[in-house]
Amino acid sequence: MERSNLSSPPTHRWRHQNPARNIERALFSMCMAVALLLLPSPSSAQDTSHSPGWVVLPVDEYRTLRARAFPPDHEPAPPPVEATLSQVDYDLQVNGDLASGRASLTVDVLKEGWVRVPIPSGLLVREARLDGKLLSLVSTADGKGSSRLAAVLSHPGRATLLFDIALPVASAAGDESISLPATASDITRASVQLPRTGLDIRLAGGLLAEKSEAAAESKWTAYGRGNEPLTFTWRRKTEDHHLDQPLRLRGTLTQLLGLGEDSTSLYAEVNIDIVQGAARQVAIQLPEKVAINQVSGAAVADWEIKPGELDVTFLEPVEQSARFVIVGETNLPRDGKIEIPLLRLLGAERESGGVAVEVLGAGEIKDLKPTGLESADATDLGEMVSSRQSPSMVALRFRSGDANSARSLMVDVARYAQQAVLMANIEEARYQVLMSNDGKTLVQARYAVRNNQRNFVKIMLPSGATLWSASLSGKPVRPG
Question: Which of 47, 84, 181, 353 could form a cystine bridge with 120, CB 3.0-4.6 A?
């Protein structure tokens, strides 16, 4: 029981919008006023403890009346979730068929009262602690017909749960692996130690951040995505002497030269196939006065021009095949006998491919003298050559045999002066005229046109004439 202090009754503001609330407030004010009128003096209060002027209310009733008289404007909204798993950290040591260690779960509790925090499924928990004290785990249903362990927390705020856990190590086909379960955490960090070195590691479901080997021990640190399992897979390294073997390669080099009026463009496609070893770079023999502008390819890291040589460096040693494109230019005579500069793949035990030469502008190739080359069709040299639409082009492929055999090409180019060309010509024109008694004239005109580059033909109509219809090769057309 509690005596109400009515010496200073609270002030009220009448709200006419809610009559029921106004009635409750009126009753509360009347009770307070009666209690104030019947309140005895301090002297009489000392004489008797329960005089008729006293009003005694239970605490719960007083709080109920006060809550009804002064209700809060808005009830506080409950938190959307009871607790969140903010971070999971694993520190594991692999010994034989078992990985044991500690798991640290950072939990943020949002709800007042008791809250259950599920433990990631698949973990074998040997001991649980909260703030250095042992913590009991309870079994709870996960909504899928099975149960899982959960920790029960009693107060809101951030808490760190420590678990001593163990995981089985799976073995299959020489690979060993452990899989950490998926959680609702945004951040998952895992540190795994093995008492061995010389291992190849693969990671699924995350990113390997650190890898170290020291004192006969390997250590890996990875970060997972949280919503999917984090799997470590390792196996013993197998020594590969493939990179130490002598390099043997074969290649295909196809080049296209465009003989222009002022300069000659050069394009070359290079494909290399590794037979033995690995190629960190390849060398291309460059003739004199050939300038290289660009070398592009998915595996190309850098390229360097040396006297008479172009060195192309790869991002990683090439063990199978690689392809890159060379773009350059050179200055050659515009006509007459011209020696074509040819690129060569150095160090190849067999080189295939070919060369194509086209004349840009008014001109043609009158004669050619090849050495180590034989005539070929443009389609035999690939799409780079076959896609060119040139009126004057020759294509030759490398003659099979030794890659170091002599190879050269001399062409004789004749240039012509630009002349005006008749783009369209009307070879024949026929007219049929029909005249009526009232003076009207109907004319039918038929034209036989030989067209080269014209898109339309312009016809002048007589003054006052009206066009009735037009057709082209027997099909009606709409004149402009």
Answer: 181
Fold identical between 83-236 and 248-415?
Answer: yes
Q: What is the pLDDT of residues 31-61, one digit of tens each?
A: 555 444 444 444 444 444 555 667 778 888 8
Bridge-based pairing state of the strands 248-259 and 290-296: unpaired
Q: Token digits for 120?
A: 């990631």
Give the pTM.
Answer: 0.45
SS3 473: coil
Residue-by-residue DSSP string for 203-242: EESEEEEEEEEETTEEEEEEEE-SSS-EEEEEEE-----T
User: Under 8 Å CB-to-CB from 384, ≥6 apart: which residues?
Assistant: 254, 256, 267, 269
Q: Where are the domains of the chain?
A: 2-69, 83-236, 248-415, 424-476
Give 83-236's CATH code, choosing from 6.10.250.3280, 3.40.50.150, 2.60.40.1730, 1.10.10.10: 2.60.40.1730
**What are the φ and ψ backbone dihedral angles of 150, each rounded to 5 degrees?**
-145, 150
DSSP string of 331-364, one letter each residue: ---SSEEEEPP--EEET-SEEEEEEEEEE-SSEE
Q: How confident is the model over 332-356, as pLDDT tens digits?
A: 998 899 999 999 999 898 899 999 9
Indicate the CATH number for domain 248-415: 2.60.40.1730
Task: Return d(Cα 177, Cα 183) in angstroms, integer.
Answer: 19
- C-alpha 232/C-alpha 204 separation (Å) is 7
CA distance 92 to 167: 9
